[in-house]
Amino acid sequence: MPSTGDRLRSEREHRKLTLSEAAEATKIKGDHLRAIEAGDWAVFTAPVYVRGFVKTYARYLRVDEHEIVTQLDEELAGRGSFAEGGGSQGLRRGPLDAVMLKLALVRWQILFPALLGLTLIVVAVWAWKAWKQQPPATMNMPPARLYQPRTSALSATLPLPPTTNDAAGRTSR
Q1: 121, 135, 136 from 124: Cα distances, Å
Q2: pLDDT tens digits for 3-51?
Q3: Which stretches of the chain are DSSP H helices?
Q4: In this structure, are residues 69 and 63 in contact, taking their beta carbons and an 8 Å threshold?
Q5: Please, which pLDDT band fits residue 143 given cuts at 50, 70 and 90?
Q6: What sign results for the dihedral spanned by CA atoms 115, 117, 119, 125?
Q7: Are 56 and 24 in contact (CB under 8 A)?
Q8: φ, ψ for residue 165 (rounded to 5)?
Q9: Which burial class, exposed, middle or buried, applies to 36 when counting CB atoms under 10 A from its CB (0-12, 13-18, 19+)?
Q10: What radius of gyration do the chain's Cα atoms show?
Q11: Would you say 30 and 19 are in contact if contact means Cβ atoms under 8 Å apart?
């Protein structure tokens, strides 16, 4: 029985397509398509990429993608590095990884507007309570820090400068 890569390559050649045409149509790099057809799974970092690319490539070539993926899973199960969940076994995971995983699962399209609305409601309630706690006597009076001119009779006019006589006997101000 031919391998997954052999089946995909023979189908591409049967349709008289080049690798560059297939790469352009599927938006998969030509190097990745060459690796898939050659069965070189070490090029890929995780089995999820292999499955996704193979499904896309099979769909483009109009090959039964479920059958191809089943055959691919059988091929990958024989490889120790790509056994189910085997891609990240050697990695240490810390608390930041757990937090980032939880944040990645959040539906931000729903949560962000809800948090924004809740924040606006909290700010509005706080502002209303602060406004209601003001003493009523100060509501109509201007704040004490603003400049208020005096209205006494003494400050209504400014004093005139003293008059002086010059050498010609003229008086000037």
Answers
A1: 5, 20, 21
A2: 888 889 999 999 998 999 999 999 999 899 999 899 888 888 888 888 9
A3: 4-14, 19-26, 30-38, 47-61, 65-77, 95-105, 108-132
A4: no
A5: low
A6: negative
A7: no
A8: -105, 135
A9: buried
A10: 41
A11: yes
